[in-house]
Amino acid sequence: MTERRDDVRRRSILGTSLAVVVAMSLSACGGGGDDGASKTVRVTLANHVWTDNIKKALPEFEKQTGLKVEITQLGEDQLSDQYNVKLNAGSADIDVMMYRPLQEGKLFAKNKYLADLSAQVKSGKDWDFSDFQAGPVEATTYEGKPVGVPIITEQEVLYYRKDLLAKAGLESPPKTLDELKAAAAKIKAADPSVAGFVARTGKSAAVTQFSSFLYSFGGDFVDGGGKSALNSEAAKQAYAYYGGLIKDSGPANVSTDMSWPEAMAIFTQGKAAFYTEANSLYKNATDPAKSKVSDTVGFAPFPAGPAGSKPYSIPSWALGINAASENTDNAWKFIEWATSKEQTLAQQKSGVPGARSSVWANPEGTSTFPEDLVKAIAASEKTGVGHDRPLVVKVAESREIVGQPIVDAITGKDAAAAADTANAAFQTFLDDEAK
């Protein structure tokens, strides 16, 4: 998620704005743009391994066209600051923008900062928009129109310890949430120093990972009419389950402000049997330099609840075109190339999970991932939900509201009552946003 401080994204040098002018050509697209259009495409990207890979690939295209790409590369906070200034001002200084669909996508689309890409996504037969996974496409669509192209994806999967399962006499990882609860309790009862289950506990940080539990119980943050659904029976059950699992089978004296680094540390130090988390963080668990249990880690699809297995399947980053750009044709040519099957395959081989189904189906595209993780991701794609937090403009504020019952349930308070209180607050929030 965009709040995750994984080491891939934290390669950024915070507070630094790096403007790099590099040349590119579009061998697949041909041409240097329409007559009169600028042959320099101005692209703003986040500090990310995806960006590093794209920069390395750009020179090969200089041989085919006269197009140039001027890249501004920024840390996440600086990226948000620049967008706030330039997009609010209607500036045409940015042609292509890398953005977070679930964090700022609705704000950008609502304010008409993102161009409608309906015509563009139909333009290239070889590019093939239908190849993109349904969940990520849903998250980059606004009012029925595509406004972005997903480039980096995440799904929630179950991390587990093979050795601890074997020791407990469990032949396979749990397939249902009921089985997960029973297995976690059994393992902790056998050795109280090892948690049966660990996950994020912080009020805001836990929302994304809790969402898969919510969907699998049959709930969501809002109902079909756009009203708060935090006090639905499904939501109340999900809050009680998630909080109760951590309270009863989690680490002793568990903190209620853990994000992924703290939860992952407990798992990789050998202090937990099960852990639900984003697949994009898997190397933290499998790298011997970071994990004491690297050789015993397994991955499984998110366990099924009453409504089935419904983990989130989302794009953490996407590319869009600034609606104020005066160079949209060439901006699209950059996006078309950067999100092509060839570039997505190259990115995925380097460890960046992409949004193209064909690349996931290609053995070469999964060659660097653990085999059981690939199977878990494939299962997630089939049943996944395209959001992992409320789809609102003020995302940070909403997460504070919907995350409170998680903390209350972990600390032993009445989850149903907490859900009722949060529901009223969230409905007020939604009413205010609708004004």
Automatic annotation (TrEMBL):
CDD domains: PBP2_TMBP_like (cd13585)
Species this protein is from: Nonomuraea phyllanthi
Classification of source organism: Bacteria, Bacillati, Actinomycetota, Actinomycetes, Streptosporangiales
Cross-referenced SUPFAM superfamilies: Periplasmic binding protein-like II (SSF53850)
PROSITE patterns: PROKAR_LIPOPROTEIN
Protein name, UniProt field: Extracellular solute-binding protein
